[in-house]
Design brief:
- The complex is a heterodimer of chains A (338) and B (388).
- In chain A, 71% of the residues lie in helices and 0% in strands.
- Chain A has 338 residues and is mainly alpha-helical.
- The radius of gyration of chain A is 21 Å and the shape is globular.
- With 388 residues, chain B is an alpha/beta fold.
- Chain B has 11 helices and 14 strands.
- Chain B has helices at 2-21, 52-65, 98-114, 129-142, 158-166, 192-207, 223-239, 255-269, 283-294, 308-316, 328-343; strands spanning 86-91, 117-121, 146-149, 170-174, 185-188, 212-217, 244-250, 275-278, 301-305, 322-325, 353-355, 361-365, 369-371, 376-378.
- The longest helix of chain B has 20 residues, at 2-21.
- Classes of the chains: A mainly alpha (338), B alpha/beta (388).
- The interface between A and B is large, with 62 and 58 residues.
Chain lengths: 338, 388
């Protein structure tokens, strides 16, 4: 609870012990804890059915495959907290991946190929932020338009040709320092940084304030425009990093937009407990949401769910998680109401 | 506490998942062929390796009986150009990509051999059927003897082609067809049962006739993939009954998902998994990349439908020792011979075969299609001959 919204808990005159208990219960009821528990229990259940699921290699690949979704979901969460959304992320991921790949095959330095998606990601997202903050175009419309522009532009420029013969040094995501795939380090480090920043920085608090009550935020001297630009800028940064994790995983780069990835990213954020109306949500939840999605996907293969049911079962589990979240929120709202 | 009940609900739900999923399990004890991603259309498996010669005759007559009548169109009052020089418009889906550069190369190789054919390659720079129609109209107006096309849209291109036929221009399709009556012949690069035979034979050469294999398909609703899988199962039932089919998983034209699926299959079956069929040009690279990065190619390999450029690194490192597709140079080459045969009056409606230079005699199938022949298998030996 404390972690999920900017609103302070109603403080009763409880004893310190009572407060501790209350804090513990709030933690146990938090979306993060439920998600973490869900991941662990689901994994144990699958493991009981098929012990091969528990192999270190398998657990690492689940985490590693979650990473690029999780990193993009961090940015998405921040956007959604302000009451906006970005449905152009998958298209952006495809475009930025192609930019990175093209720079790498044309003998530009590797660091430039890695830096370019971040820079272009931030620039494109700042443009979206400008449309939303200054021209007052609803984010869903602005990003829907951007999605078409990016997809169309990509197919026009590449003609659908794949990128081959990437230099060896390019494959950042294939590296495994200390036997752990690189994307996992990125996922945890970025989540931690973002969580701290969102919780303790003035801008982080202001992001929640704008999403929670725009008018109150304005009256308390927060510039909504500046916050929206910041939010989309952060989203661009995260999509850029996500692109690097995605594009450097493979020997060839698919020059088309990966289908449905924006939905997976938004789903991860929503499962993570972000309120689609804005005002609340955490980045740790988003990361756990991404890991849960991958755990479900992988677990179903291990317990022999028929391929024909994969999507339906995955959707049901996601729906269930969101329902539980809504249920939990209602309780909290009525508790606050009292 | 209410929160407790929420937590409890989630716990129960999570614990119940495998139980709830139990009826959805692919029955492992009684492997059901209904669950491998095939369709329910009739199959027509080709002859097993070593039996081709013996089988060829009966199979041919059997096919001849159920053969579709010629259903192509005919040009109106076309001038008799038998043996004379002709000008051919080569109109691929688009220019600037390696695949159609290869078909054009094949057309020109054959034109050089024949000596009395000029190939004019002109096509849009992006795969647009509207642009193709403009090209057709312009060339018909200017005057051209033959149009050889690969359509971007089988329905939309047909009226323009019918108009060309009415103006006395010969129309031949390759790679991607129009409606049958809008062209005289279509050069078909591969049949489903032909691809299926090449895939299964390639796999068996790598993992043996009693190996265990899984399939990564594109999506479970993709008609081409379902057809290929059906024909593969039928062919394997006939020729390699001991081949052990583990399961089929979808990858939705997503390289990352194919990568993940291959990892999961290897982690799930370990050394019991000998081979993965990758059923699309996206699944192939994804699966091969996963096997490469996991370092398991000494025990699990992939055989896929993909292009040489996409699979080159994996053909070279042995993770995808065999990749199945057709040879686009041969496709262009055959198209040129078909054109010449039509002009010279050697390929008339009702014909059952056509001479195609170095490719030998090609059969007529489905009424008005010429089959290129068995698919090409790309391996370490021939991969460097191809760039598309």
């Amino acid at each position: 609870m404390t972690a999920t919204t900017s609103k302070p808990l109603p403080q009763s005159e409880a004893t310190p012990l009572g407060q501790q208990l209350r804090g513990l219960l709030a933690f146990l009821g938090s979306q993060e804890f439920i998600l973490a528990l869900g991941i662990v229990l689901l994994s144990l259940a699958v493991y009981a059915d098929n012990p091969r699921f528990g192999a270190e290699r398998n657990l690492l690949s689940i985490l590693s495959n979650s990473a690029y979704i999780a990193v993009a979901a961090l940015g998405m969460t921040v956007v959604i907290i302000t009451g906006n959304i970005d449905i152009s992320v998958a298209a952006l991921l495809g475009v930025l991946g192609t930019i990175a790949g093209q720079l790498a095959v044309h003998d530009y330095p590797i660091w430039l190929a890695w830096l370019a998606p971040i820079v272009f990601g931030i620039l494109i997202e700042l443009f979206i932020g400008f449309l939303v903050a200054y021209l007052r175009i609803p984010a869903i419309v602005a990003t829907l338009g951007m999605m078409s522009v990016l997809k169309g532009g990509l197919i026009f420029v590449t003609g659908g040709a794949w990128i081959y013969d990437l230099p060896k040094g390019f494959f950042l995501a294939q590296r495994q320092p200390l036997g752990i795939p690189m994307p996992i380090y990125f996922m945890f480090a970025l989540t931690l940084l973002m969580a701290i920043w969102m919780r303790y920085s003035a801008t982080g608090r202001a992001i929640y304030a704008v999403g929670g009550n725009r008018e109150a935020a304005r009256l308390s001297g927060i510039s909504e425009k500046r916050i929206l630009m910041t939010v989309f800028g952060i989203n661009g940064l995260m999509v850029g990093i996500s692109t690097i994790l995605f594009a450097t995983q493979f020997t060839t780069i698919q020059s088309t937009v990966p289908p449905g990835v924006e939905l997976t990213i938004i789903t991860a954020a929503v499962i993570g407990g972000v309120s689609i109306l804005g005002g609340s949500g955490t980045v740790i939840g988003a990361m756990l949401g991404a890991i849960l999605i991958r755990t479900i996907q992988s677990g179903m293969i291990f317990v022999n769910v028929s391929a024909y049911w994969l999507q339906a079962v995955q959707g049901l589990l996601i729906l269930l998680t969101v329902l539980v979240d809504i249920f939990r929120r209602r309780r909290q709202m009525s508790a606050i109401g009292k | 506490m209410l929160k407790k009940s929420v937590v409890a609900l989630v716990l129960v739900a999570m614990l119940l998942t495998p139980v709830l999923a139990a009826p959805l399990k692919a029955a492992n004890d009684a492997p059901s062929r209904m669950l491998l991603g095939q369709d329910d259309l009739p199959t027509n498996p080709l002859a097993c390796p070593g039996e081709e010669e013996a089988m060829e005759e009966p199979a041919a007559t059997e096919e001849a009986e159920e053969v579709v009548e010629y259903n192509g169109g005919q040009p109106v009052d076309a001038p008799d150009l038998a043996g004379q020089d002709i000008r051919v418009l080569d109109l691929p889906k688009l220019i600037g990509i390696a695949y159609f550069a290869a078909t054009t190369k094949g057309l020109n190789e054959a034109a050089e051999e024949l000596g009395n054919m000029e190939i004019i390659t002109d096509a849009p720079t992006e795969a647009s059927v509207d642009d193709q129609i403009t090209f057709i109209e312009n060339y018909v107006t200017q005057g051209i003897d033959v149009i050889a096309f690969a359509s971007n849209d089988p329905v939309a291109i047909s009226p323009a082609l019918r108009n060309a036929l009415e103006q006395g221009v010969h129309v031949i399709g390759f790679d991607a067809d129009s409606e049958p009556d809008a062209r005289e012949w279509f050069v078909n690069q591969a049949t489903f049962n032909g691809m299926a035979k090449a895939m299964v034979d390639s796999m068996v050469e790598e993992v043996g006739a009693d190996g265990s294999v899984a399939i990564i398909t594109s999506s479970l609703t993709a008609p081409n993939q379902n057809r290929w899988i059906s024909e593969m199962l039928a062919y394997a039932d006939k020729c390699y009954p001991d081949l052990n089919w583990l399961e089929t998983v979808p990858s939705e034209e997503d390289q990352q998902l194919a990568f993940q699926r291959a990892q999961e299959l290897v982690n799930k079956y370990g050394e019991d998994l000998d081979g993965i069929f990758a059923m699309s040009s996206v699944a192939g690279p994804g699966a091969a990349d996963a096997l490469t990065q996991m370092g398991v190619c000494d025990q699990t390999i992939t055989v896929g439908i993909s292009t040489p450029n996409q699979m080159r690194p994996f053909i070279e490192n042995g993770c995808a020792p065999k990749v199945v597709l057709w040879n686009p140079i041969d496709l262009g080459y055959a198209t040129a011979y078909v054109i010449r045969a039509v002009i010279d009056g050697e390929l008339l409606p009702g014909a059952t075969e056509v001479e195609a230079g170095r490719l030998g005699t090609l059969p007529v199938i489905n009424g008005s299609e010429i089959l290129l022949g068995p698919p090409t298998v790309f391996t370490q030996e021939n991969i460097n001959d191809f760039d598309f």
